[in-house]
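in:
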């Protein structure tokens, strides 16, 4: 079956995410757009994931994930087979975060929400900072938890492995990379050994992807989807 995806969406937990990016709004917009699979990947946290998954139910496949910022200020998307595994990564990140408090009036609020879009808390530590984990450690930790790490938006001039390190470290077990532009063809030539995913990195509802990129798998299951991160997307 052909499943249209957007594996990089921020909720209102990310300070840079619009306050309209609530669990219900994200799920409903994804359904409205005709997507089959999404991942809500907040910066260094997955605190709204439980609510998103509850809202989605079996209407939309939600791949548990988050966008981790490494010590080198490289963004890495981490996807997991279960919510518990993703929350395990979150716990580890909490132990390696910088003790910098958020200033909502400058950076924006970091709302935790329930499945009714009610605010149930606010993250006090700023989520958009580097963690103390190197890119190697992020890959290793994600793998240990059964997850897949994917260098984010390698086509961008900031917070990407290419912009910050200048190259993809050859010893990193990378099987997939993400671009946020639609023009896959230009990247497919240079990155032919990797699975390339293309996502929106939406911070606003209207930016959630149109049904443009898809994957073909036999079963609409997270584990199938993760397996396919090492195969070819369209
Ligand atoms: Zn990013
Ligand atoms: Zn992002």
């Amino acid at each position: 079956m052909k499943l249209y995806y957007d594996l990089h969406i921020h909720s209102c937990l990310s300070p840079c995410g619009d306050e309209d990016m609530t669990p219900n709004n994200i799920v409903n917009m994804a359904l409205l757009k005709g997507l089959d699979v999404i991942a809500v990947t907040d910066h260094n946290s997955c605190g709204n994931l439980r609510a998103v998954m509850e809202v989605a139910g079996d209407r939309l496949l939600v791949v548990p994930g988050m966008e981790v910022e490494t010590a080198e200020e490289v963004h890495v998307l981490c996807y997991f087979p279960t919510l518990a595994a993703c929350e395990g990564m979150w716990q580890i990140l909490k132990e390696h975060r910088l003790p910098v408090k958020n200033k909502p009036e400058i950076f924006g609020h970091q709302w935790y929400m329930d499945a009714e879009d009610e605010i149930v808390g606010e993250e006090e530590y700023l989520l958009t900072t580097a963690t103390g984990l190197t890119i190697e450690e992020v890959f290793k930790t994600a793998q240990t938890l059964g997850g897949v790490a994917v260098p984010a938006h390698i086509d961008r001039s900031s917070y990407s492995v290419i912009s910050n390190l200048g190259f993809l470290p050859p010893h990193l077990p990378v099987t997939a990379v993400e671009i946020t532009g639609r023009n896959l063809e230009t990247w497919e030539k240079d990155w032919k050994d990797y699975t390339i995913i293309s996502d929106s990195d939406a911070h606003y509802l209207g930016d959630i992807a149109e049904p443009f990129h898809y994957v073909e798998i036999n079963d609409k299951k997270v584990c199938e989807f993760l397996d396919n991160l090492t195969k070819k997307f369209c």
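note: The chain has one domain: 2-230.
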